[in-house]
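Title: Request for sanity check on L-fucose:H+ symporter permease prediction

Description:
We are preparing a figure and want to confirm that the structure record we downloaded matches what your pipeline produces today. Could someone re-run it with the sequence below and paste the raw structure tokens into this thread? We only need the token string, no images.
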Amino acid sequence: MNKKTPLVFRDMILPFILLTTCFAAWGVAANMTDPLVKVFSKIFTMSSLQSALVQFAYYGAYFCLALPAAFINRRFSYKTGVLTGLGFAALGAFMFYPASQSMAYGYFLAALFILAAGLSILETSANPFVIAMGPVENATRRLNLAQAFNPVGCNIGVFLGAALILTQLNPATAEQRSLMSSTELQAVQTAELDAVMVPYVGMACVLVLIWIAVAMLRIRPAREKVVAHSRDVHFRATLSRLFCNRHYRFGVMAQFFNVGAQTCIWTFTIQYVMDALAVNEVRGGDFLQYSLILFLLARFAMTWIMGYIRASALLTGLAVLAAALCLFMIMSPNIAGVWALVAISGCLSLMFPTIYGVALQGLGEDTKFGAAGLVMAILGGAILPLAQGAIIDAYGSAVSFIVPALCFLVVGRYGLFDLQSTCRLTGVRSPAAS
């Protein structure tokens, strides 16, 4: 790697810094949502499978809105996409207030869907925006640097979820709630749902402030191209080229399983800790916080290590390690298994941005729609937790971690595939190494 190559173009430094706040913002949203699976399970007395619909609504929205976001970016600009995403996300977060007043699970799912729809547009726009802000040769490393601020938001999200939501849950069990009068039960649920609402409305206000800051900046990366009219978006031809690109196609599949694994790990951390150590939700939330702190530190560490070790090699090694840790958890549902679960977050740290950056290499004018496909792959976060929830209901939380273990093996295979593809190009260094 050429050490003199700038990581970000000089006139893009301020926009790059501002965009990092967007990466942090969707980290807050995603990780405030993870504890909601356990929270709604307790408030509404539902099974793990039913409460996992939280993740289905959240990540399902990512799938539905990624392609419209690509059209926005292609026709207008990345900035327009970022502003549209921030606007929808703020609207969805504000909707938690009427949802809490209605006391209906379905309204919360609708609010989550709109929130995640905005975040889908935001992510589809912000990730390739960062890639376009500097030289091609270190695009993957630059994206890892921007993504390093995502776990800052993740930690804030987990803290807010633990401090403002989990601590406000009434300790009454499902059996005790069934014995309450309708008036008593409604009073308990009202207090708990108000606790869910407060941090989301606060986040909505922050998103509005970020929207204003982005709107005031005049930014357009030199490598970004837009079309003059919507009819100039040749969608079928673009889709055909992307589908025929084996490297990109495998990258989308790897991202599907990567996000599925990550969502499974963080969604059911609290459940696993409670079962393994016989503790309550608050203590389980502490270990989720430890996981996110490790994720944060590892993301910065991996960004530095990528200056010396090929990104695909790191991806392969950490995916295999994560799968092994999952198997250890299954066999040792105790304190050792809990710490193995925490360690998996260190392995997760580089996976999303690395797969994203490697899969988009060389797509040229197809990058905006290619980015949408990779965000649509986040659908894995909607589907795979449902599978894990069903296994928990049938066999217990420990056995259920076979789901993320299998996902990690697919991710590791993609890293190996990229390394093998590079070796076939004699004398050409892998772009992922930059």
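Thanks, this matches our download. The two ends are 6 Å apart (CA to CA).
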